Amino acid sequence: MCDLEGVELHFFKLLFVLIRRSHNLYGCRISKETSCDLLPPSLPRGAFNPGRNVTEVWASNTEYFPSVKWQYFISLDGVHNEYPASSFSPGCQGAPGSSSPRAKDCANIQDTRHRDVFMRTIQPQAKYVVIVMDHGNSLSATQMHIAKAVTKHLIASFSDNDKIAVMGMSSQPKYAQADSCLNQTMVAATYEARQFFTKFVDGLQKADATTNHTQGFEKAFEFLEELIKTSPDIDKAMILYVSRGLLSSLTEPKQVMEVLSVHNARMDHRVIINTYPVIDDSKPIMYEKSFLHTVAYQNYTKHDVTPKLKKPVIRGMMVAINSTRDLSSTVGRFYLPLNHTAAKEPVISLPYIDEADGALTMSLSQACVHTLPDQPNLRHLIGLVGVDLHMEDVVQDITYYSHADSSYAFIISTKGLTIMHPSFQRPMRTTSQPMPTDISKFEQHEGFSEIREAMLSSPEGEMTILLHTINQTALDGEAEMVEHTAQYFWKKVESTPFIVVIKSYFEVNKQRKLRNILMNNQPDLLYHRLDLLPNEHMCYHLKQLSAPEMSAVFLSANSFINPFEHLSEEETRHTVQSYIAFLKDDTRLIKNPGLKGEVRNDVAATGRISEEWLRRFKSSDLNDYIIRRYVGTPSGVLRTFPGTLLDKMYDPTKRQWYTRAMEYPGHVTLSAPYLDIGGAGYIVTISHTIYEGKPAAMHGPQDKVVAVMGMDITLGYFHKLLAMSIHTCEHPSVRCFLMDDKGYLIAHPGLIDPTGKGPAEQRHITHMEPLVANDILNHGGFVQKRLCNRYNDRTVQRYFSFNTSFVGYLTNLVHGEHCAKYHIMHISGTNAFLGMVNHTCDTATAFCPCSMYDRLCLNCKRMEQTECECPCECPLEMDFCSGHLLDTDDDVASCPHDPEREKLAVSEKAPTLDLKQCASFSCDHRKTRLDCLGVVDCQWCQVQQDGSTPLDKPYCASQRVCFGGVVGSHSPYGDEISAEPLVQETVGVKSTPVGPVAGGIMGCFLMLALGVYCYRHHVHRHNHHHYIGTLPDNPNNRISTYYNDDDQEAVEDFGAAGQCHTNFVLATFDNPASVSPYRVNTWYRRPAGGGADSSDHGYSTMTPREDSEHASMPCLDPFSVGGGGLGGSINKDRDRFRPQPTPSGGGTATTNITVNPVPPPPSSRPGSVSGALPPPPQTALRRSRSPTPPQTRLSMSTYCPIPEQTVLGSSLMTTFTSPTSKSSSNPSETYHQRHSVPGMTVLPSDQQNLTGNSIQASAQVHLIDSH
């Protein structure tokens, strides 16, 4: 008898390296008390069934190896025993053993699960098979359905070691692809090929012709004969014939047998034929089964056919099929005539999606044989034993591998296929079958092919590759060339077909880490599990359980030594208390509950920002628009304000706000709008990187990023920002918009238009502004259409990439469109662009082709730079004959994986208290559109429920009442309510003062960046450059006592009349910037001879050179006659982006936008002035520190007012500064010229001293450190 217990234990010992962690993530309801025994209806009498004999063994294995997911035994006769028992029901409903129809679901799942695993283990040798499916007119609908099910089951039984061909047969053969490959050549049964053939079978229709069986077998033999020419050593081959078997004439059987005799003789009788007659019980059977039985046995004498070769044939099988159930025990045994031996060693599968729970899984299996004591060499195969593992568990050390120099790890197979790579989604987030892809597609460095060959041929080793070289200036002022290299270290995992690789980047600078940061001087640590440790001030922040006026710490899986263990085990009150105790322990005596070493210091460092967040929360004018603030570190630590319960699967480093900030280090990064899971509607995230601190305070893109800070803001805020900063944006014919560096709109009237599609994600400029999109593609150096290959779903992604280093502004280049003019420019220091479009007529000739049904490109055969098309995707075509991707698409870079989506945290242990909302935004008290626009949870209700009829009296209400501005519209949160227009008396509400667009964006960012200095509070002073760990060990001392701080200077009041400044970033706040504890003298220089050890060990947001000297944001001047345009003063270099004067008529291709007279918006500020702004102060002692300074001083003698609006045009009111008033003591003295639009600042183009090129309409944000 087969020693199953011995096989199991031996098997587990071999694979101990892959089985380590405990978990309970089965994805459906289970019972560990018993196993599930599945027996096929056609089980032979006396078939071996271990039954309950192995249940105790499996339970014991689970105790030793808790990470095992499923354990099972599958016999050759179809017996399937699996532990733990489960119903495998969809949706995880129903209980095991219930009498509901779940047993049918269980049987269907088991009929398809482990099919590939079974074949790889029982028949690991390569198989060469031609599958022919009959779809002639003799088949009924039932028979067509059965024939397709049988054919697809056969296709799915093969692996990439096998070669197959598939064709349909009626009067003529039909192939999956009409080319020289699939109609002549057998191809490797890769996952893509199997999927392709499966779709082909699904698409076969019943033909209006009889089936020509003779021609079907002739074509099948042609495939095999072509294969023999290239692989003459093939032992056996097969033809699997799925048909009703109805004959067109009585002579056809003899014709078929003659074809078999001739062709199989050429193949030396190496071809085995299996036939599968599909039976419709309602149809009479005459000679069909007899004919197909004769074919399977190749019985030539029955039809008086003389064999052409005396060598005996290998008989096949005829299996009649009348149902699509239990195909594994009927059709699935097609391999029996091959009579190959099973694998002796364990077989490890490639990752696949388990149908039982939808999780990415890896199977490990081994053949089970029966031997007799007196015949030890006779091995009788009876089945296999196997286990399934979560891929998240197997590769967790690779998935969460992190190092200071941005090194990463990946796993490949011994064939070079990529098993896990940073380009992949986390296994626990993977929901679709991954496509096996060669590692060379992800490591696209010149010379990597040699390293790949070394990895596959050597059990271990290391090699270095040159990435690129750059020229830079050395400390002595001499130019030097620096080589950037990467080193690959690899080692093959024993007893597995896998190779683990670490790719390490080498940098000159010494990597530093935070050490021994104390917690005793910080506020009480709050963990995000408010449901387990309730807080007396708890409330609901929209839809999330929150603690107002407090920040909370969230530890993602990346923060733990065993990430999968953390994700799979339930957090309890005790475990949360152990986290808090360990993190707050300054004595370092409490046992580590499983956290990585850097987590404690990151929690302490991020805690410095909490007080600044609270101060801003209580004083900022932007609180009505800010949903939450947060900061995340590479170690997976996330601190949020207000403290909020988060989903356990959340990983800040995988979110878009984090990855985009890392893509643009040192820049303010804006994300495209997306639906907030917390209930705030459509929001935009602003984020910024935090650099490792340096004494010199200068940073470059190559510097180490130690954290990313972010802030969620309502989508409406940016529309309000445009409306209040650029009054022209409110004109009916003018559309202002903001977009990111990929062309996705951040703000556009169409995003908030209640009569349109309303707010939506992934709205591109090509969707909303096809005129602009068509024209900007003709501007060289501004935008590029790019490609990237997304290998996991085999698509080629087409996207736009805008130049964030672009200086100047763009206007119409193509002159064919006279109805619209546009200006567009980059907002310095961000990844965003600002544009304005003026349409003077309703017609537009430009458009961008877009698919209305999916993202498929309309023309995948060409992509021209100047041809406009929406972002789309094309199939990543594959050469099935070679099994490789087509060379035409193979050279394109790999796409990064999509950012992970957040899930709303729902706890079964949520407090039963009747909690209220943390804040009331008083939507009903806001009586104007601009006052309502952008406020959290508020919508301006303006359209009736039909989506088109305007309300007589628009009003402001909760988004539950009118999401998107439509009363009673469906809410994406499913919480819509009906309400009538409110009629309360008007309540005077002070409007929030919002500065120019760049100032508004940077103003939001300032709220982020000021916290950075609190974050650095413990690690940097101009007279200290040591780790905190070197300070005296006195837990009663606060960290700040170790430094000699000067007293903070008094904050100046800039609100008095007659005082003004151009720092519109600070002007957006009621309170000026706080004085940083890190105040460095402006004449400070790093002492000579300071090495790496003397550098600052804190975090900062410094940016290099010009960005650091003055983070200048251009004042957003609308369209200007005479060359002003967006950005105000544009030097002559920028004129190259304008249309050249037309040669005829003496006219010019003007870029003016003339607007019709409109009354000024309610928020217009009278008395705005304009003029040339002075340059930043030039002093020998000035030293720039950062775009977000520790201390910002505003000199009243140097700064003068920012023009709120600057417009050039003869039809508008003009308010300009007198040329003689420059020496006047009253800087606000102005001239007024009456035009049709009062209240706007207009600069006349005919003034000699105020030409378009001399108007400095950019607001300098002077960020100066002073003592």
From TrEMBL:
Biased segments, Low complexity type: 1215-1230
UniProt xrefs under CDD domains: PDC1_MCP_like (cd12913), PDC2_HK_sensor (cd18774)
InterPro entries, alphabetized: Ca_channel_alpha-2/delta, Sensor-like_sf, vWFA_dom_sf
Residues that span the membrane, as ranges: none
Taxonomic lineage of the native organism: Eukaryota, Metazoa, Spiralia, Lophotrochozoa, Mollusca
Disordered as annotated region, ranges: 1088-1198, 1215-1235
GO CC annotations, alphabetized: voltage-gated calcium channel complex
Protein name from the UniProt record: VWFA and cache domain-containing protein 1-like
Alphabetized SUPFAM superfamilies for the sequence: Sensory domain-like (SSF103190), vWA-like (SSF53300)
GO molecular function: voltage-gated calcium channel activity
